[in-house]
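We store sequence with structure; for instance:
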Amino acid sequence: MTTTPDKNAVLNELQQFVQPAALMASPAETEADPAVPVQWLRFLDEQEHGRRLALLTEWSDFAAEWTSVQDFLRTMLKHLYVMREQDDTLSLLYLYTVGGKDLNFFRGRAPITDVPERLRPVWDWVPAKFRDFYTQLHDGWTFLPANSMGPLPVEDWAFLSDDKFDIDDDTARRLPIDISRTVAVFHNGAGDYLCLNCVGNGEATGVIWWHEDPENPEPVDFWGVLDAWVGIFLEEADRHGA
């Protein structure tokens, strides 16, 4: 286990982006809070004893599809914290460093307990393993300052037909996809989105919507792109060994 970062330094860094009401790094700090997921308590308990078996086990269900995160958990992750914000939103923060000192975070919210009404018409098309991630582990897992470079929280999933994408009716008719059933689930931080095209009889297929070429969405391997984009983003993260 690597050296624990100074908690005050962590709080100072976080306050640039969010306003934590509490930042907890041990079961003793969180056990009185019934809203904290039990699995997070296990993660923190093992962390106190220099282990991460429970964390790796929970993530192992997605290891085959998402190898970049397995690498992150084993060789880049410095410390875990449970953060409660002023509005009582709970997140599990995954701290890592860049350049030896710059503190960075991925943020995983508590698993969802209900699918938002607007997503129910397409939810069954979402790949089963991706649904499991949201219902069993985290409601999204993103780079904290930008809410990007990972699967977005379901509240931030957006259909390409939404106003934010500014696709007019004429363009929509020419596209090879139905924008009302194509949902953006991953933002790369540069204006591009990895989407799920929720049509047909099987699982949704991957599509990249490029902001500089909006009329030519690119069919892609969904998990392959998700894994690659996260891996590229983490290339500069400090490693501490397997």
